[in-house]
Amino acid sequence: KMTQQMRDLQLAQARKPPGPSSPNAAKRLYRNLSGKFRVNYTSFDESSLVGRGEKEKLRKSYLFQSNAALFEAVELQDLDRVQELLKQYSPEELDLNTPNSEGLLPLDIAIMTNNVPIARALLQAGAKESPHFVSLESRSLHLSTLVREAEQRVNELTAQVVNEAPNVDCSEKEKQLKAWEWRYRLYKRMKAGFEHARAPDAPTNVQLSVASSSSVQVTFWEPLSVNSAVVTKYKVEWSCSPTFSPLLGEAVIDKLKNLHFTIRGLVSGTAYYVQVSAYNMKGWGPPQASVPPFAIPSNWREYDGRAPRRRGQAEALDHLLGQVKTIHQHCVCHEPCKNQPQSRKHSVSKSLKHLFHPGSKFLKTLKRGLYLTAIFYKDDNILVTHEDQIPVVEIDDTYSCLLMQDFLWFTKVSCMWDEILWLRQCVTVSQSSCSCILQTRFKMLLAISQMQGLLGIQDLGQVFFEPVKDKQGNILIVTLKEVKTNQTFESVRWVPICKLQTSRKSVSSPEEPTALDMLLISIQDKLAYHQRSSHALSPGLYLGYLKLCSAVDQIRVLVPERLPNILCHVKIRSNPNISREEWEWLQKMASVEEAVPVEPEAETSQNHLFQELQVAIKELMTLVNIPLQEAKDFRLYSQEVLDFGGQVSFLLLLPPSDDVCTAPGQNNPYTPRSGFLTLPLQIFELGEE
What we know:
By secondary structure, the chain is an alpha+beta fold. A hairpin with a 2-residue loop joins strand 1 (204-212) and strand 2. Helix 3 packs antiparallel against helix 4 (79-88) and helix 4 packs parallel to helix 7 (116-124). The protein is extended and about 110 Å long.
């Protein structure tokens, strides 16, 4: 009966005739693929094709060859070829989960020959086991049938070869005999592998954690022993009872790239027990209970009912800005502002250009003063003017000392590049006071508008955290922006950065380099800073180190060069949530006066957090070059957990109160190793946003 089912399946799969059945045939197929077929079918000369139907026929033939090659590579246990095919084609193109004429899938062959590397590669690509093996008996019967039919075919061909006289037909039958002998050995090996295998052991290191107020997360590792058969899926079960009766739910995980699962839709404050079991072709293995044995969905905010710090802040600021705009629009001095078109996307460059005298253009040389330069880059190219200069416009030629307050104000303006016209009109109204500060800031807005008009773009990018200064009294405020697409700009063109640096070096003075020379010398560092400052952390809970140093006009914060938008940090765990129980323990630990708090009970979430914190603190102290014995005077910030977007959260480690912020002239005995820098606090806050 099973044989008849397979023959029916063979008829249904008529579009997939059996491929080569011997190692030599497989090698010939590989050579064929590497030559005629291992090219994209669209690379053929389309003029030689009759039409779309002919191209589609060629494509199907091409993909069929790749499917046959995958089966042969798995049968020959050629891991490199399997990986090459999986990388070159999608699972759909390979027909990865369509049975062949024998009713087998590539994954079936891999697991029944116990080829673990190939089986894992196929599983990573989304391979499944054959759905026809609904039970152990059906799989065993099918393998026995394949072995018996292959043996019968070998006997028939052997008799024909022995009894017939040597001729062309006999030579062909000898080739068939060798192929069937090889396939007979393959089926026997698959049958022996199936009979020898047993159900897998239980998964190891099953860890349970609280993911939110309505979910828990379980992570686990593979069993120590899979008992001669690759694990192809896992089952996660959960219940409110330690006996798992009744069972509240279960989930089967067949995507094995990451061994974890989040159980959602749970009731806050209710204890949930979780266990995990593994499956191979011999069935499900025993379940393994999690550690801790249960978890209660919760969040640290439930401890005192605290609302998120930033809830509604963005909406409130947008509303406030809208009110300010409305008030200014009714001012007589702002009548022209009312006439601004509602949609300025397609006419920005033209409207900006009309604000300036026709002679407005980029500067070639610097005088003593304050300037704005915009660096646009793409890969190893940078935008320059037609004179091969970085775009520079003048802010104030009488301004020789940039006050930090003016620079920080400029960085805040960079968050409103689209509102420069409106900001200019607002500042114009206030100029009756003749304030030097207002005049400087109005000139900054004029320079921004001029740069936007000359480039034909509004967004000038991110402000570099410090200006470039030279001994001649020139000060450059630098903005940086990476261009992702092949965008064209007005009055500028793309050139390689190395070419620009070489040409500038030939005309500059090495004794007294100008601010532009200094900018070009350090441009790679600035571009690297800009790229790193936009990187995001992977989801998880982190331990951050807050260290400040003050100067006369600013406070600076210590950050790592590789991620200058984040405090110095190490990762505690992948789960960003702090549960209510963990937060209660942290509060108790913060209130204990002894240097070493009492360790929490074993097999609890608090104990796991305690162990994770110990490891993280040691790693962080090493990172910032602070002796571990000094850590006893440090403390955890216990007022709140810092949340960033719901996927990243921070616990802060603080030095002793007197050392949080180093005053001017104060000696800092512990200097971090290389790889750190200090940013003005306001710049860091903008980058963090």
